[in-house]
Design goal:
Largest sheet: 8 strands, antiparallel
Strand content: over 45%
Structural class: mainly beta
Shape: globular
Helix content: under 10%
Number of strands: 37
Number of helices: 0
């Protein structure tokens, strides 16, 4: 048995609403993925500090016009939220709601990598959590401000007729956010409900309530209110788990501006059967965890890609796990096999701006700073097409190659900041503001985007160089520094994205190659 030491936050990237389980010596954590596909990402760890992607729960959720981004709106800020993951009698369970469909989904699998089987639970259970009791009964806890516990039937398809249905906890305080983000456990014979909570005038906090039975009174309150790193953001909402040696930890998240909502590991101890979070009610910067696999080599949560893929026996291609599409992709309009070594995006619709573009391929950004580079061949673009590299969120920025009357130009454009609450539930149809535009000689360029999240700076800068890197080694900056911001219209952290959209006619093609991801990046070429 060895030990591993890490620093909080354990992941400096957007994995919000974590729920966590342990199966033998392996930890699994599920996180919200909203409108990105494949969705329902599950991470794996052997020490709670280092993580890798194990699988996704689904390739597509429902093939609605919104989820396919074909209705002019999309499902930004909706999709799957705050899943519950459980392992019971040899089966993995992942349960969540989708805020665009209004449905509750239950996926099951015998192996964490799938295949996952989809079913539905009758009703809508916001931020729910499953509990498999020792007597064979199954319950779901859920809600906002008012937290209910409902017994499910034996097939887990609906509430059990005549089964338990009760209000367990009600938030009567003066709050910005009432109790939600439920995590439900039975530990040593007692029942525990954990929530996120945001009192007015304070930080987001973690709360816990406990009862001796499902019919008993749940009592408790806030158990952690701490601003890690002094960024005016509390650490809260997530699951708890024990180690094989009996130590307890919680994986919570903290809002970190434009990079997103990022996981934090908090030690948990017990006093009189009630959890005590942190060390003296603070979140330690350094955490040490025992592990049986201290020398395990984890796959990175981000990746380079030369786009050399071989289809499987069914003719399908599995992209590297860090990639996710913005909404469900149109598989007829992208390929990594038409030309080995290239991702080819085909234009199939007209779009007014970046966020309405189909088949945008994304990876999460990483703090405190990171950069992405890609070679773009735009020789098959049509007039009015835009293809390039973006920092994708509500107030996006991008550098793109465009074509006008047969001539090539590079543009840097952005969607201007409208505030964190602006645009909730709205549809963005206006084009971005073109900040800079320069002519280029050919349709082949290398693009670079650099994000800096240091101390809440939250900026992106864009660069380019013409032709192959070895011919022109220096990047040229284009446009101005773009201010990134976490907003509730998309409700996710900033991502790098490769995109193509058409404003005049369809049929153009953008070809991407040699994608490179760098952390701790600077603006100049490395």
């Amino acid at each position: 048995m060895g030990q591993v030491t890490g620093m909080n936050p354990i992941l400096y990237t957007d994995y919000p609403d974590p729920d966590i389980i342990r199966v033998a010596d392996t930890y699994y954590m599920v996180s919200t993925t909203m409108h990105f596909m494949p969705g329902g990402v599950i991470l794996r760890s052997y020490d709670l500090i280092h993580w890798e992607i194990a699988s996704y729960v689904y390739e597509t959720l429902e093939e609605t016009a919104g989820q396919q981004l074909s209705d002019g709106k999309g499902i930004y800020g909706k999709g799957m939220w705050a899943a519950s993951i459980r392992f019971h009698k040899g089966t993995y369970y992942v349960c969540f709601v989708a805020n665009d469909t209004g449905k509750t989904y239950l996926y099951t699998a015998k192996d964490i990598t799938g295949p996952w089987k989809k079913s539905y639970i009758e009703g809508f259970y916001h931020d729910n959590s499953l509990l498999f009791d020792e007597d064979g009964r199954v319950y779901i806890a859920y809600g906002n401000r008012e937290i209910y516990i409902t017994e499910l039937n034996e097939t887990l398809t609906a509430p059990k007729k005549g089964g338990l249905h009760r209000l367990a906890v009600k938030d009567t305080g003066d709050v910005i956010l009432g109790y939600e983000g439920t995590h439900f456990y039975k530990i040593n014979g007692k029942y525990y409900l954990f929530f996120i909570h945001w009192p007015k005038g304070g930080l987001r906090t973690e709360a816990c309530f406990c009862a001796d039975s499902l019919l008993g009174d749940f009592t408790g309150g806030d158990v952690l209110s701490y601003d890690l790193d002094g960024i005016q953001s509390g650490v809260a909402q997530g699951g708890i788990v024990d180690t094989p040696d009996g130590d307890w930890y919680s994986v919570l998240f903290q809002d970190h501006g434009a990079v997103g909502r990022i996981p934090v590991l908090v030690p948990v101890t017990w006093k009189n059967d009630f959890p005590v979070f942190g060390e003296n009610h603070t979140v330690p910067k350094r955490v040490t965890v025992a592990t049986q696999k201290e020398k395990y080599s984890y796959e990175s949560l981000w990746c380079d890609d030369d786009f050399n893929y071989v289809p499987d026996a069914d003719g399908k291609v599995q992209l590297k796990l860090p990639w996710q599409w913005n909404h469900i992709p149109d598989n007829k309009l992208w390929s990594v096999t038409e030309k080995p070594g290239a991702l080819r995006l085909h234009s199939g619709k007209l779009s007014g701006n970046l966020v309405q573009a189909g088949n945008t391929l994304t990876q999460r950004t990483i703090g405190p700073s990171c950069a992405a580079e890609v070679v773009l061949d735009g020789c098959e673009l049509h007039d009015g097409d835009y293809a390039g590299l973006c920092t994708l969120q509500g107030n996006y920025g991008f550098v793109a190659l465009t074509k006008e009357e047969g001539n090539y130009f590079l543009v840097m454009a952005e969607k201007e900041d409208t505030g964190i609450f602006a645009g909730m539930g709205s549809v963005d149809i206006a084009p971005g503001r073109v900040v800079a535009k320069v002519p280029v000689q050919t349709g082949k360029v290398t693009l670079r985007a650099v994000c800096d999240f240091t101390n809440g700076k939250d900026t992106a800068d864009f660069f380019f160089r013409e032709a192959e890197p070895e011919q022109i080694p220096e990047f040229c900056r284009i446009g101005e520094t773009h201010k990134l911001r976490f907003q509730l219209d998309h409700f996710v952290g900033c991502r790098f994205g490769l995109f193509l959209f058409s404003t005049k006619e369809t049929g153009g093609v953008a070809e991407f190659s040699k994608f490179r991801f760098r952390t701790e990046a600077k603006g100049d070429s490395e």
